[in-house]
Amino acid sequence: MQKLSVARKPFIIGVMGSHNEESSAVMEDARRLGEAIAKSDYVLLTGGGPGVMRAVCEGAYKAGGLVIGILPNDKQHPLEKYPNEFVDISIFTGMYDARNVINAKTPHVLVALSGGAGTLSEIALALRNGVPVIGLHAPTFKISGEYDFVTVNTVEEVLQEIKRRLDQ
Predict the structure, then answer these.
(1) How far apart are the first and last CA of the chain?
(2) Is the pTM of this model over 0.70?
């Protein structure tokens, strides 16, 4: 067995989004974002399930990237469509919604791509813990205080914002 050689500590980009199928534009943006993350030599971290999560995983996987899925279930209690077929490393937490803490605190940058209440919880947890958040088709919310949150309109803008934050 060949040992994995890593020239540098990789950056982890979390992409949080809906477990549902969204509009074709959102799903295409998810695939494109996953591909771009892989081509930028970042590691992708998602919730590892269906919908938007699957689309972003597919894009990264097919571009040769490494995909980590933080799963809500444990191995003894399978959950349909978790992990999706594009997850390389499955982390079975058995924590269900509580896994959102791991999803929010692990990445260097978190991208909120569509989603609902679960994605909102991940945004809040990330911001409270100093993880920059970039919203693309993200749920709207209001929060007082100064946090590193920006909303963008395109995958290209997401990548520019990721790079800007990682370069700081």
Answers:
(1) 37
(2) yes
